[in-house]
Task: inverse folding
């Protein structure tokens, strides 16, 4: 800590000393050549491009607000705005800003007898005054339509700035209860894709099928389930879920808690002693969920366990015995869709 | 000195570009035709047993038992009861399981504990029948299903395949991974093998009873698998039928390399062959 403060002070000290030396050193004349742009066309074009960039930025805001944030158009408008801004800047640099060639002579050599020479130029005491006058005169030429360009620049800045800031509105409403919303509660029957109720005898040990909540929209994320069957003696469910898997039948949400792909892989070993245990695997990024202990994640990028649905058997058909054990899918996804 | 280098240099660069392109295309060709893992191993000594005269029924079971004792009992036990930590019990495995594993060459296994993979069947067809009869006699289990793809519908098969199989085997039946197991490609699977695997659930594959996938649905699935084995490549070269990855490979390795080469050749022509070196001499 002390060493850093010491280093900072040394740094400052050096700069102070250098500054003092430079202030007190004699001023040297600098030869310049100024090249003014031949016509004002470049300036017009720069202004046009800047206004167009502003329009593109405002188009972004309009698309965001009114076209339901169509991402293709959003990207296009930002690309066009930035491209036009780039074109304006390039044009300005090449043809609008006066091109100056500055030639700086070498510092004076000190001869053995103490006199100084510098390439034939003489030092004059009138220099500072002349330089200031030159600066004032130059301010009037070159960029004759400074106001226009300034306005165009401001417009472009406002347009693109708005495009950059407006997406903050998507930082979401308060989440509330939406994460827990699902059609599952005590008594909801499980049905297959064709609408027929899932019978206990349909499932052999080691098989899996996709089921839905009776009466719910199949497109709703929380409605779909992956139902698997294992041997009851294999189960290792936590104590509060001991009766959630009658006859070894387990039901989990089919939506992966990582990025909401449908979990469609089920591995069930024929010879458990020499194979990995039963698990549901997601095909997108291979998040693996152990089915025996209630959907805990054992591999892959998912963080939360797969939500489990408690089951009971009514007249040989499977029925939910309560809601899912947790929120379905990737939390951000469901809020955004309903957002 | 510079001028001479210009001519020889351009020619050398062209040859180098050609060589690189050829190498890349070669590597790509190798990758495109890469074979999946296959089980290998010596044929069991029991192949000497003459099965031709086995006949049917009890004689087959007896022959099967002989073959079993020599080739299988070291892992599966003399009565097929299994050995703890080595091999499962075959009581109740059924004829379907035995037929599947033997016909696809998955059993006998080279190494205890490794995943059984398709390979050359180690027994003749008659020997397999005998072994199947013996294993079937050990206890009731799934029988060899009668699968007829012509009775199924390919479109229904695709829907069923997508829902139950494509997660691990891929929609094109080219195989995949199931974290802990390798789901093999289905390029060589006969309809009967497809049916057997569905009913048995080998290694870590789930199994589907006749209620979950009815025999008619099985016909459809087999029809779809047959289609994936010989798809109609309407667009031309199928590049392995595994989707956008090989297509990307073709674009990057072949098309891009070719484009670069062509650009180089065009540039050389427009530049007048070996251009004069107007650059300043280094100071």
Result:
């Amino acid at each position: 800590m002390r060493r850093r403060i010491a280093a900072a002070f040394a740094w400052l000290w050096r700069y102070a000393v250098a500054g003092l030396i430079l202030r007190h050193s004699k001023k040297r004349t600098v030869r310049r050549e100024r090249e003014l742009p031949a016509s004002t066309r470049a300036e017009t074009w720069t202004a046009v491009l800047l206004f167009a960039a502003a329009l593109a930025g405002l188009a972004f805001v309009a698309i965001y607000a009114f076209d339901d944030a169509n991402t293709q158009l959003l990207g296009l408008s930002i690309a066009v705005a930035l491209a036009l801004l780039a074109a304006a800047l390039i044009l300005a640099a090449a043809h609008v800003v006066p091109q100056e060639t500055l030639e700086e002579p070498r510092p004076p050599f000190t001869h053995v007898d103490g006199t100084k020479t510098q390439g034939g130029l003489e030092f004059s005491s009138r220099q500072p005054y002349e330089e200031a006058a030159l600066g004032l005169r130059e301010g009037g030429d070159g960029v004759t339509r400074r106001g226009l360009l300034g306005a165009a620049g401001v417009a472009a800045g406002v347009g693109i700035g708005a495009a950059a800031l407006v997406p903050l509105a998507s930082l979401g409403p308060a989440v509330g209860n939406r994460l827990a919303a699902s059609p599952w509660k005590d008594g909801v029957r499980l049905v297959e894709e064709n609408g027929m109720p899932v019978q206990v005898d349909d499932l052999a040990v080691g098989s899996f099928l996709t089921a839905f909540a009776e009466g719910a929209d199949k497109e709703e994320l929380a409605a779909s389930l992956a139902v698997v069957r294992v041997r009851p003696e294999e189960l290792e469910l936590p104590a509060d879920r001991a009766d959630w898997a009658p006859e070894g039948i387990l039901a989990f949400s089919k939506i992966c808690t990582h990025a909401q792909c449908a979990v469609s892989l089920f591995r069930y070993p024929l010879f458990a002693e020499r194979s990995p245990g039963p698990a549901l695997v997601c095909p997108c990024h291979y998040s693996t969920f152990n089915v025996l202990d209630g959907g805990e994640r054992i591999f892959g990028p998912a963080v939360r366990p797969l939500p489990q649905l408690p089951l009971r058997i009514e007249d040989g058909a499977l029925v939910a015995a309560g809601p899912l054990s947790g929120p379905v899918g990737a939390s951000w996804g469901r809020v955004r869709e309903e957002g | 000195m510079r001028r001479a280098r210009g001519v020889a240099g351009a020619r050398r660069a062209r040859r180098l570009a050609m060589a690189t392109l050829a190498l890349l295309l070669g590597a790509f060709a190798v990758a495109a035709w890469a074979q999946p893992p296959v089980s290998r191993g010596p044929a069991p000594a029991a192949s000497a047993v003459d099965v031709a005269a086995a006949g049917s029924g009890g004689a087959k079971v007896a022959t099967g038992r002989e073959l079993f004792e020599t080739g299988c009992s070291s892992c599966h036990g003399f009565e097929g009861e299994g050995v703890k930590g080595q091999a499962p019990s075959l009581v109740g495995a059924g004829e379907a399981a035995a037929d599947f594993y033997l016909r696809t060459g998955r059993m006998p296994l080279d190494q205890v504990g490794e995943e059984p993979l398709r390979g050359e069947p180690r027994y003749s067809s008659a020997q397999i029948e005998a072994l199947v009869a013996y294993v079937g006699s050990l206890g009731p289990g799934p029988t060899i299903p009668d699968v007829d793809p012509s009775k199924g519908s390919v479109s229904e098969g695709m829907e069923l395949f997508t829902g139950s199989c494509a997660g691990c085997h891929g929609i094109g039946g080219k195989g995949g991974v199931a974290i802990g197991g390798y789901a093999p490609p289905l390029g060589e699977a006969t309809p009967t093998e497809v049916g057997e695997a569905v009913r048995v659930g080998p290694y870590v594959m789930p199994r589907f009873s006749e209620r979950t996938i009815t025999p008619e649905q099985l016909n459809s699935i087999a029809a779809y698998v047959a289609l994936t084995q010989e798809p109609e490549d309407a667009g031309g070269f199928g590049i392995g039928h595994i989707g956008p990855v090989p297509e990307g490979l073709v674009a990057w390795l072949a098309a891009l390399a070719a484009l670069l080469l062509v650009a180089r050749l065009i540039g050389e022509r427009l530049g007048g062959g070996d251009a004069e070196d107007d650059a300043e001499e280094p100071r």
Q: What stands out?
A: The longest strand of chain B covers residues 176-177. Chain B touches chain A at residues 84-88, 112-113, 163-164, 166-168, 176-181, 200-209, 211-212 (CB under 8 Å).
